[in-house]
Amino acid sequence: MHKRVIIKMEMDNKNINNLRILAVDMIENAGSGHPGIALGSAPILYGLYSKVLNVTPDDDKNIFRDRFVMSAGHGSSILYATLHAFGYNISMDDLKRFRKNGSITPGHPEYGVVPGVDATTGPLGQGVSTAVGLAIAQRIMASRFNKADITLFDNYTFTLVGEGCLMEGVSYEALSLAGSLGLNKLIVLYDCNKVTLDSDINGVMNQNTLSYMQSLGFNTIDVADGNDVKQIVESINLAKKSKDKPSFIQIRTHIGFGSVLQDSNKSHGSLLGAENVKLLREKLGVNTNPFELDKDVQRDFVFLRKRFETFKKTLKDRIKSYSRAYPGDYKLLQQFISKKFENTETFLNDVTVLKDTSGRDLGNLVLQELCKAYPNIICGSADLSSSTKVKYNDSGFVNDNFANRNIKFGIREFAMGCISNGIALYGGLVPVDSTFMSFSDYMKASLRLRAIMGLKCISVFTHDSIAVGEDGATHEPCEQLNALRNIPNMYTFRPANLTETKASFEIALNSNLPSNIVLSRQPLREFECDLKDVRFGGYILSKEDRGELNAVIIATGSEVTLALECKEMLKCKGYNVRVVSMPCTNLFDKQSEKYKNSIIPPNMKSIFSIEAGATSNWYKYVGKFGKCFGVDDFGGSAKPSELYERFGLTADEMTKEMIAVIKKNRDKILSIV
After folding, report:
1. Which candidate, 257, 256, 282, 258, places its Cα nearest to that of 270?
2. Residue 128 has pLDDT above 50, yes or no
């Protein structure tokens, strides 16, 4: 072997060992963390960043960069140490504040918090599934913007997984789709140490993983020595040559490498302790003080970072040539990247209905116009596009041609949510995914992560209540609305007519938060309202007459017309009532106290809510003197009208109960007087 090669290999090993010790210093200083993966996977991350990834550390949101998703997010310490060493805006002081309050180095990687982190990870299986979305987005953008003479979108997506990620079912869902789509620019790096938190994997995960991945449509490569950076890099470069399949590289590593806890499950999340860290330093030949890199290591990292500047310059020249040769496409690309949706109201002005129409059909009408106006909207469903009506009718499926605008996710709700997150993370595209409302539970964990990341993703959930009818309790949501509304940093809409549906999509597209739009299967009765009012999340739909206000009725979705019926019946009995439509409680709650009090007077005691779902969230508006009408039990297999009657959601029944409450509250006031 050439002497220069030997020297370089020795330098690589020294760099890796410095990173290992730096990661351990972070964990020991924090008093918690995961040293096992940091010590075992360090060569993989080093090989990627030093010799493979085309990235721009000073512009970590550059849409043309390679992506790396640390799906095994508990390895955050080695990821942060590596990002620091390769020039990302993470200082040594930031590493000292690992897992500390207010730091930019949290316990698990967080997108938008940690420079260089391409996706929030930690919940195992979601990272690799998100990486599939990133790879799909790359193919979509390449199909739309790449030219025969200039290739703009040519990046790869890499993701590091462990046994835990592969055990989670969502990884199978996503990787199965990746293989079916032939995502050749997706490369999965398997940190194969055969140990998890509780034990080794004997009796838990006995399959032949490479054969398993081959069955999913992946190229597979086996790296026998996880400390051999040269072999790791050569395997990655071989995988990059694939033209029709994604690649899966099994890299045999040792959890807790070099420590007294090597190959033990105890190294997963246990501190090594000062004495054992001292022994580790001696074994790895690292003689620095805590939170220091050797001087020659620092110099070598400066040298290794020069390849990023070469990539940046080449990319800049390519973009310049593209903008000159294809000015129209370049302008469109800038619009994609901005994700700005101006004039949505104008595009939707001509959308009208002449008869009562289901919520899902109203959503389809709105979506068709938006897709025509904004070519970066990508639609998809979990094998339910004919039912949810979430499909751009003027385009085919990505599964047949990546130039198309719809995705067949298959029956994979959880993976669909994660993949949509990846599509949104990539930049330029806005995913609109869909399934039945009762199956939103499958997606819940992915919805939570997109809210943490603040992604512009839209989920459309149809078949929104007991009005599903004969399909029975399994398909009739009751608690799901509250579950969605309770996720922070997210909007959940339940529109009652066409105008509210327009507003829901408009707000969702123009917000920097993820949104859920919940639509009915049954027809909704049309009524007039002002789009400007709807944008507040809750508004007065039907004002009370002059005189004393006796009650306020709040309703959403298909129950708004029930509220209007109750108002008319109460009016006949001499009661003066206001009806409030509240399509988005999350948005209403953000309004000023003055506005909220103008809609729901704070001194009003007779307040009622009507919604065919769980009632618990409505008490913050209704208070202890009003009454919530809803569904606090599972539905049943019956006609919708029968179910509404069973749960007391009829105008006759609710009006009787409202009168009783109004009288009771009035009597209380009179007794006080």
Report:
1. 256
2. yes
Residue 6 has pLDDT above 80, yes or no: no
C-alpha of 167 from chain center:
20
Residue ranges covered by each domain of the chain: 3-310, 344-524, 535-672
Q: Kindly state the DSSP code that residue 220 receives in the 8-state scheme.
A: E
Contact 38, 20 (CB under 8 A): yes
In the chain, the amino acid numbered 374 is: Y
Of the residues 163, 173, 413, 476, which is catalytic?
413
413 is catalytic: yes
Tell me how many degrees the CA angle 485-490-492 measures, rounded to the nearest 5. Answer: 50
Q: Is the dihedral of CA 294, 295, 300, 302 positive or negative?
A: positive
Q: In the prediction, which pLDDT does 673 show? A: 46
> 3-state SS of 56-89?
CCCCCCCCCCCEEEECCHHHHHHHHHHHHHCCCC
- Judging by beta carbons within 10 Å of its beta carbon (0-12, 13-18, 19+), is residue 102 exposed, middle or buried? exposed
Q: How far apart are CA 111 and CA 443, in angstroms?
A: 20
Burial (Cβ within 10 Å: 0-12, 13-18, ≥19) of residue 307? middle
Measure the CA angle with vertex 337, ends 348 and 382; round to 5°: 65
Residues 6+ apart with CB under 8 A from 183: 132, 135, 136, 139, 246
pLDDT tens-digit series, residues 328-383: 999 999 999 999 998 999 999 999 998 999 999 999 999 999 999 999 999 999 99
Q: How far apart are CA 421 and CA 164, in angstroms?
A: 20
pLDDT of residue 662: 97
Is the separation of the CB atoms in 296 and 284 below 8 Å?
Answer: no
The top-level CATH class assigned to 344-524 is: alpha beta
pLDDT of 7: 72
Beta strand 377-381 with 539-542: parallel, antiparallel or unpaired?
unpaired
Q: What is the pLDDT of residue 667?
A: 76
CA distance 530 to 222: 62
Strands 607-610, 551-555: pairing kind: parallel
CATH number of 3-310: 3.40.50.970
Quick one: average pLDDT of 576-598?
A: 98
- pLDDT value, residue 8: 79
Contact predicate 310/59, CB 8 Å: no
Tokens of 577: 């009532």
Q: Are 582 and 446 in contact (CB under 8 A)?
A: no
CA trace torsion 318, 321, 325, 329 (10° rounding)? 50
User: In whole angstroms, what is the distance from residue 572 CA to residue 97 CA?
Assistant: 67
Work out the mean pLDDT of the chain and round it to a whole number: 96
On the question of pLDDT at 592 being above 80, the answer is: yes
> Closest Cα partner for 362 from 613, 630, 558, 507?
558
CA 242 to chain centre: 29
Task: Give percent helix, percent strand, percent coil of the chain, each to the nearest 5.
Answer: 50, 10, 40
CATH fold of the domain at 535-672: Rossmann fold (3.40.50)
Which pLDDT tens digit goes with each residue over 414-435? Answer: 999 999 999 999 999 999 999 9
Q: What is the DSSP string of 141-184?
A: HHHHH--SS-------EEEEE-HHHHHSHHHHHHHHHHHHHT-T
Tell if the pTM clears 0.90, that is, is over it.
yes
Q: Tell me if 3-310 shares its fold with 344-524.
A: yes
Residues 227-276 pLDDT 10s:
999 999 999 999 999 999 999 999 999 999 999 999 999 999 999 999 99
Residue 412 reports pLDDT greater than 60: yes
Pairing of strands 357-358, 377-381: unpaired
Query: How long is the chain?
Result: 673
Structure tokens at 366: 């709105």
